[in-house]
Amino acid sequence: MGEEYKSKVFKSGNSLALRLPKALGLQEGEEVTLVSHDDGSFFFWRQDRAREVLMGLYGSMSAGFMADGRDDTAQDDRDWSHAATQAA
């Protein structure tokens, strides 16, 4: 794990903002992806690293990750005979 930084949330217009330390190496205007977790924690990464982050998550799954399937629930049959004539 890397360095730990503390910051405060402040109001900026009608939004909330978080001042990030320069030491993180972000540049003004750089886009980031921010993900909130159910436990209240957040994770973010540079947008240009999205593929790298995704592939890292993929590689972290165990070999038997979906060995038992997705455990989907059964769905009723649908009548698609008139679906092409209806507008979305």
TrEMBL record:
InterPro entries: SpoVT-AbrB_dom, SpoVT-AbrB_sf. Residues 9-41 form the SpoVT-AbrB domain. Keywords: DNA-binding. Signal peptide: none annotated. Residues 68-81 have a biased composition (Basic and acidic residues). Residues 68-88 are annotated as: Disordered. It comes from the Bacteria. One of its GO terms (molecular function) is DNA binding. This is AbrB/MazE/SpoVT family DNA-binding domain-containing protein.
